């Protein structure tokens, strides 16, 4: 059957062929060969590697690869968290402004019977809006600084991670090639005197390939063992510095906001909901109670986060050697007066099921009252039940 030439084809068909040829020319066939054609071979060789040549399995390299994967995962999570934090900080300021506008609309000048109390409340709401207007440029400045300092460092670290991942892939391919040539040489030598002339020539070719593969694998293996541990240490230090920058940036935002809102605390005090000028304008008591009921579980979860007690934990470690007030005994008139601390409370970081009847079961996030701290097992109370529990499962708050 003869093939038709391009002159015999209609213009539409010829145009489709030209477009297909253009796309075909832009295909990276080396990438296709490496990732598609070689994929079944790589899968089989990985499966058979441990059973055929267990001597090629390097526990040190496996540990380094695991640590590197954790580093890559942490970098990705940090980038996502930084983006979410930026959105949340901007949203917080916008929510403050919108809250002020909503409160202002409650006492808007829609009638001629606005009372003096409403006018006073409106003035305070205007001051509230001014505070958030002043905080908005500060938040934008901090977020811009974080993006410049932290975002660029994370992108640089991500590019370096890609280079390291490429080197690890080269080492894995070299390992599979070495294993393949070793198995091929073993199969040829196992035939002994039954080898043909062609197979004898193939032995010399395989030995040369094996030498090249072994040299390449040894070189990559040495480089990874020498340089990857150093890279992991440096990357960990970079991430720690990034976390500190994010922490103090967050501290700056909330400090400025709290400092500016502090001036309005006397005038707009929701803790004192019995004031007459609140109850006469709106049902403030009901609003506050509903708000607290909805947000109390969230407040407990936020309070249990370690980052919310960044400095308290360090100060607690410093002060751990100082005797507590419960051990201080004051002698006066022949009587012993024992001064007691306030109740200690810890939050559970993991689930724990009691082993015996004297233990205390709890779930992650539960707040436990600490009754006694002794060694690695403490005594506490939860929901009226008293028992012992491991101290490494909880965090003091």
UniProtKB/TrEMBL annotation:
The lineage of its organism: Eukaryota, Fungi, Dikarya, Ascomycota, Saccharomycotina. The keyword Acetylation does not apply. It holds the Pfam family SH3_1. Residues 341-397 form the SH3 domain. SMART domains: SH3. It comes from the Eukaryota. GO terms for cellular component: actin cortical patch; mating projection tip; medial cortex; Rvs161p-Rvs167p complex. SUPFAM superfamilies: BAR/IMD domain-like, SH3-domain. This is SH3 domain-containing protein. InterPro entries: AH/BAR_dom_sf (IPR027267), BIN3/RVS161-like (IPR046982), SH3-like_dom_sf (IPR036028), SH3_domain (IPR001452). Keywords: SH3 domain. One of its GO terms (biological process) is plasma membrane tubulation. One of its GO terms (molecular function) is lipid binding.
């Amino acid at each position: 059957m003869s093939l038709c030439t391009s002159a015999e084809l209609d213009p539409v068909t010829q145009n489709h062929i030209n477009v297909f040829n253009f796309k075909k020319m832009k295909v990276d066939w080396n990438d296709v060969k490496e990732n598609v054609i070689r994929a079944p071979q790589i899968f089989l060789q990985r499966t058979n590697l441990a059973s055929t040549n267990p001597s090629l399995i390097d526990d040190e390299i496996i540990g380094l690869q695991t640590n590197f994967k954790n580093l890559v995962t942490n970098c990705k999570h940090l980038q996502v968290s930084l983006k979410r934090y930026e959105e949340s900080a901007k949203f917080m300021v916008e929510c403050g402004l919108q809250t002020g506008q909503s409160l202002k609309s409650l006492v808007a000048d829609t009638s001629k019977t606005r009372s003096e109390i409403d006018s006073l409340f409106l003035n305070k709401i205007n001051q509230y809006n001014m505070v958030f207007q002043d905080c908005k440029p500060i938040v934008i400045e901090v977020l811009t600084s974080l993006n410049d300092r932290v975002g660029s460092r994370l992108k640089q670290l991500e590019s370096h991670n890609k280079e390291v991942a490429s080197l690890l892939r080269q080492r894995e391919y070299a390992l599979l090639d070495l294993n393949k040539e070793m198995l091929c040489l073993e199969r040829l030598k196992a035939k002994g005197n039954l080898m043909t002339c062609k197979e004898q020539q193939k032995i010399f070719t395989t030995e040369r390939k094996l030498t090249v593969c072994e040299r390449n694998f040894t070189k990559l293996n040495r480089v990874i063992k020498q340089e990857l541990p150093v890279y992991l240490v440096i990357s960990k230090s970079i991430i720690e510095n990034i976390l500190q920058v994010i922490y103090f940036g967050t501290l700056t935002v909330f400090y400025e906001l709290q400092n500016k809102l502090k001036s309005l605390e006397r005038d707009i005090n929701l803790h004192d909901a019995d004031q007459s000028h609140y109850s006469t304008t709106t049902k403030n008591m009901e609003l506050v109670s509903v708000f607290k009921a909805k947000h109390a579980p969230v407040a407990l979860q936020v309070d249990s986060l370690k980052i919310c007690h960044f400095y308290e934990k360090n100060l607690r470690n410093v002060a751990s050697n100082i005797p507590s007030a419960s051990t201080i005994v004051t002698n006066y008139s022949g009587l012993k007066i024992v001064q007691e601390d306030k109740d200690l409370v810890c939050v559970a970081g993991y689930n724990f099921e009691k082993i015996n009847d004297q233990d205390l079961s709890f779930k992650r996030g539960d707040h436990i009252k600490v009754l006694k701290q002794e060694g690695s097992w403490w005594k506490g109370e939860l929901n009226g039940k008293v028992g012992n529990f491991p101290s490494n499962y909880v965090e003091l708050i």
